[in-house]
Amino acid sequence: MTSRPCLAWIAGLGISAAGTLALAGQALAVPAGSLAQNDQTFSGVRALNLARNHAVKLNGGLGTYRPAACMFSTEWSGSECLVRRDDAGFLFRFLGGPPGWQQLNLAPTVETEILIAPDGRTVVQLIHNGPPRQPNAPLP
Hints:
Blueprint: H1 7-11, E1 13-15, E2 21-23, E3 26-27, H2 34-58, E4 66-67, E5 82-86, E6 89-97, E7 110-116, E8 123-130
Antiparallel strand pairs: 1-2, 2-3, 4-6, 5-6, 6-7, 7-8
């Protein structure tokens, strides 16, 4: 598989600290709110990836543990695993188990509930990582 350099870098595109899109030093007109919306999307994707990867690491790696399929979704905002998103961050709750547990219709062995920072870059709190709890466990 060949790697592809970032097209924005090749074209000389950049985003200034003020959020202005620039091409070779020339500011470009960008619809109001689009950069902020993209940043929110990136934060959500980062949060989903961090929550999933943190759970994988906690539970022994991909050789022994797989999170629920909803944690591999590319549409994080519609993920069944996203309980809520607010000023505290992204709260995910999801099941997991041995490789193939969902495909083989096996019961999950682990439930993870984790709060990720609003920017999607850090784990704020690991609320639960253990045996599955009762359905509809109360939210913190």
